[in-house]
Amino acid sequence: MTEQQYLKNLTPPEGAVDVVLDTDAYNEIDDQFAIAYLLRSGDRLKVRAICAAPFFNRRSTGPADGMEKSYDEILNVLRRAGREDLIPAVYRGSGDYLPDERTPVPSEAAEAIVKLAADYSPEKPLYIVAIGAITNVASALLRDPSIAEKVVIVWLGGHAHHYKDTAEFNMRQDVAAARVCMASAAPFVQLPCRGVVDVFTASGAELEKWLLGKNELSDYLARFTIQTAQSYAAGTPWTRVIWDVTAVAWLLGGDLMEQEIRPVRLPARDHHYEPPIGKEIAYVTRVCRDALMTDLFRKLLS
Q1: Which of 66, 109, 157, 219 has the smallest count of CB within 10 Å of its CB?
Q2: What is the architecture, at CATH level 2, of domain 3-200+242-289?
């Protein structure tokens, strides 16, 4: 890939593009919003695959259980959106994290990414939007490094460079996978969580006014979010981050966010960034919250 093409691939694409979404959909509530936003942006974004990512927290008994629950939740959202046609394009991902930076974890998802990417090129890349631990994508790159020039990786992971640490959930689950993807030859877009995209929150009042009771999908998203927030913030004003949406939004360009081209900083295992290395990435610096929320709600009601 030429340097000119590489830099072009670090800017949001023009026109319609093909997309793979890699998501730990059962982990929180924001993945469901991101899936819905992707589906409702079908004039620009063609879904080639949706991959279930592993996760391990109080909502799972381990990475494999988190992945299976995410697989089931992807199917749930597709049915509520009336997109059962995409069910054959949903793949189970890794049941564990990378053991090191050289060894892939076999999965349906990793193999699907390798096979899909083979049909693309630097001039017409496959966009991989990852909103969980990036194990599946790293495994695909380790399985076939040649796909790096045929894809663009857009990842919501890590915190801002100025934040106190890198102990963000997606990044700290599989530091090896993050390092593989960020250091690879693939054009890479980072959307940092704390310090950048954490401005993308929704309040209960907004969800009730704009989404509740409007259609099956919007009602599910609103009720799930409100129920989750009420479990820990009942009787208080609250907002809830739905920041996974921003990774999908990057593909749409326009006035939804701002970015800089920066040298990549890889995460260390002590939850801090290492000094910059030579590779340049797109680093999102600002999300235009109201513009994106307006577009999200409009599409959910379409």
Answers
A1: 219
A2: Alpha-Beta Complex (3.90)
